[in-house]
Amino acid sequence: MISNFEQNISGTGYGGSLHSPGLSAASQPTRPHAVTPVSGFSNPFFESNLLLSEEDDILARIRGGELWVVNSRRRNGLIIHKEFYTEFAGPGAAVGGGLDADCRAVIPLGSLSLISPDSAEAQQKALKIRLQWVRLTQNFTDKPVPLDRAQLILEQFKSYFDQSIVDKVPDEAFALLVGVLPYTVRRARALV
């Protein structure tokens, strides 16, 4: 029997509670209009008030050297922040392994599910899908007008995820995906 590990990250997506065990809701800091990313670094773009146990730490899994695949049977994904840019890994895309060892922070979208590929062919397919997601984002960054880039990325995410999910993603995350300023994303949100 193939041992597929599936990790459902409850409480870090949009359907679960963002409160940590052992802390009351009143003692937890809140941040309006923002997704709480999982981060091991202090970063002005990705501040985290979420406390996770080691076994549930998505960032640790991604940096752990093992290759994972974003479950292709769910509307989920992962915004992966690196030192100077950000990538989106959607359903079917490979994450972790050597691809994301330099990952600084992640933002899970939807009900994130990571599975372990069961063969070399599954790994290759997942790597190709990751490249397709990168190319899709690159198509937006090729547009010369920053406001157009911001509108395109917002429209793409809105076509795939619920409006409430897109609204919670920080402007800075979208800005780093398409190479614009966060202010441009705020302007684009008002237009889309």
Brief summary of the model shown:
The chain has helices at 58-63, 120-141, 146-160, 163-168, 171-178, 182-191; strands spanning 6-8, 38-39, 67-70, 76-81, 86-89, 94-96, 105-110, 113-115. The protein has 192 residues and is of the alpha+beta class. A hairpin with a 4-residue loop joins strand 4 (76-81) and strand 5 (86-89).
Helical segment count: 6
> Distance between termini?
48 Å
- The unreliable regions are 1-56
Largest sheet, order of strands side by side?
A: 1-8-3-6
Q: Number of DSSP strands?
A: 8
Rg value: 16 Å
Explain the layout of strands and helices.
Layout (H helix, E strand, L loop, with lengths): L5 E3 L29 E2 L18 H6 L3 E4 L5 E6 L4 E4 L4 E3 L8 E6 L2 E3 L4 H22 L4 H15 L2 H6 L2 H8 L3 H10 L1
Antiparallel strand pairs: 1-8, 2-7, 3-6, 3-8, 4-5, 4-7
Supply the key terms.
4-stranded antiparallel sheet; globular; 6 helices; single chain; alpha+beta; disordered N terminus; 192 residues
Structure write-up:
This protein has six helices and eight strands; from the N terminus they run E-E-H-E-E-E-E-E-E-H-H-H-H-H. By secondary structure, it is α+β, with helices and mostly antiparallel strands. The protein has one domain. Helix 3 packs across helix 5 (171-178), helix 3 (146-160) packs across helix 6 (182-191) and helix 5 (171-178) packs across helix 6 (182-191).
